[in-house]
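User: I'm preparing a small set of examples for a lab meeting where we compare how different chains pack in three dimensions. I only have the primary sequence for this one, and I'd like the structure in token form so I can line it up with the others. Please keep the answer compact; I'll paste it straight into my notes.
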Amino acid sequence: MSELHQHVSLDSLQHALERAFGGRLGGILGPVIGGMLLGIGLPPRDVLLFASGPALVTAALVIWLGFVSRGALARSSTPARSLD
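Assistant: Understood. Below is the structure token output for the 84-residue chain.
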């Protein structure tokens, strides 16, 4: 097996493990945290609003990153001017 193939295989394995661990961790902690919030007396509507916070922040950051990267691409695609 070539060295490149080994790196690609290890990289793919690492990403698969990260996704699996994140899914398991969220699957375990989500109900625990939701139960704790319900246990302290928050109504279910507020628990759902609380849970949507990270998704809204992530969506805003992705949109912001899209604008920033488009600006960087536009600046890099302009031809360089000569000093003559």
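A couple of notes for your slides: The mean pLDDT is 77. Residues 45 and 51 are 10 Å apart (CA to CA).

User: Perfect, thanks.
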